[in-house]
Amino acid sequence: MKLNRQIAELALEEAAKSNPGPWADHSRYVARACEAIAEHCEQLSSDQAYILGLLHDIGRYAGVSSEKHLLDGYRYCMDRGWEKAAQICISHAFMIQDIHTSIGEFDVSADDYQFMKTWISHAVYDAYDRLVQLCDALALPTGFCLLEKRFVDVTIRYGIHPSTIDRWKRILEIKECFEKEIGCSIYTLLPGVVENSFR
Fold it and tell me: How confident is the model at residue 157, as a pLDDT?
């Protein structure tokens, strides 16, 4: 089945019915942020960026989990032949390509952990991976927000980890790279970011 916008939206809708929660609205805002930034990047398709952002957390269809949702999403997409979307399902959580930088719990088997460890260290990231990593940190279920607000939101839920600060630094570096390319602040492309950040 060839992946397009309509199919991606239907997949998210069905996944949200399977496991209702704020993650689905978060995914929609990630998709919109990806689309808005990609529109200003020559090498990116805004439609493809939207689709990849929309599906980055699709593994949550399988129920409440921690890092297992990354692998569930990867397998969900691979089963449908959506290879890039499958990559994004894992890569969005590893802006630093080292499994030890995870902030979640590995609620997976030993074999699955080893698979993820090898996959992460060997994956070749491109601009779409970086864009989703960035936009994942720009979106709450209620709308767009400053990176720092999302950093705090995630840290309150997951706690402080040895790699927390390095992960923040990497996201800020990715932000700077995209802003150099588009020639403006990413926040100017995200409607409601001020209101949602300070509500």
Answer: 87
- Phi, psi of 98, deg, nearest 5: -150, 120
Which residue stretches of the chain have pLDDT < 70?
Answer: none
The length of the chain is: 199
Distance CA 14, CA 17 (A): 5
The pLDDT of residue 198: 84
- Indicate the helix (H) or strand (E) that contains 143: strand 143-144
103-128 pLDDT per residue, tens: 999 999 999 999 999 999 999 999 99
10, 107, 118, 84 alpha-carbon torsion, rounded to 10° = 10
Q: Burial code of 125-162, b = ≥16 C-beta within 10 A, e = fewer?
A: eebbbbbbbbbbbbbbeebbbbbebbbeebeeeeeeee
Ramachandran angles phi, psi of 19, nearest 5°? -145, 80
pLDDT score of 194: 82
- Identify the CA nearest to 129 among candidates 91, 181, 177, 175: 91
Q: Is 172 exposed, middle or buried (0-12, 13-18, 19+ CB in 10 A)?
A: middle
DSSP 38-74: HTT-TTS-HHHHHHHHHHTTGGGGG-S-STHHHHHHH
